[in-house]
Amino acid sequence: MHRFSVIYLLRKQYHHIDCETHSEADIILEQLSAQEEHKPIGIYDAKTELFYWEPVRQHQYDKATIERQGKIATHIIQIAQSLRSRDEMTPTQTSSIAQLLET
């Protein structure tokens, strides 16, 4: 499995796109921002278990209290890990990034 996951909302459900590098994930995050129905959340790093918010959400996160930041971060990391583990358990056909962005 790839190290990075771009997390986004589509039709009120969380989804992710796996990426090999942080640079690739940044590009995908930017492309998702341009799509009307997709709401990018950020990038999860499975190796370090850190989450990098997309810029608008990072600003909101920075304004939150330390307690609130902890709860939000824990929640989104749990979502990212759940999405990744679901994919590990369910063998799926590999799709190109372009195909995923067309949905």
What are the salient characteristics of this protein?
alpha+beta; 4 helices; 50% helix
- Secondary-structure-based class equals alpha+beta
* Content of β-strand: 25-35%
For the largest beta sheet, what order do the strands appear in spatially? 2-1-3-4
Kindly provide the radius of gyration, computed on alpha-carbon positions and rounded to a whole number of angstroms.
Answer: 13 Å
Distance from first to last alpha carbon: 22 Å
- What is the β-strand count? 4
What can be said about the biggest beta sheet? 4 strands, antiparallel
Uncertain spans? none
What is the residue-averaged pLDDT? 89
How many separate domains make up the residues? 1
* Percentage of residues assigned to helices: 40-55%
Principal-axis shape equals globular
Q: Please count the helical segments.
A: 4
Give me the strand/helix succession.
EEHEEHHH
Structure description:
It is globular, with a radius of gyration of 13 Å. The protein has a four-stranded antiparallel beta sheet, sandwiched between helices. With 103 residues, the chain is of the alpha+beta class. It starts with a strand and ends with a helix.
Short structural summary:
With about 100 residues, this protein is α+β, with helices and mostly antiparallel strands. About 50% of the residues lie in helices and about 25% in strands.
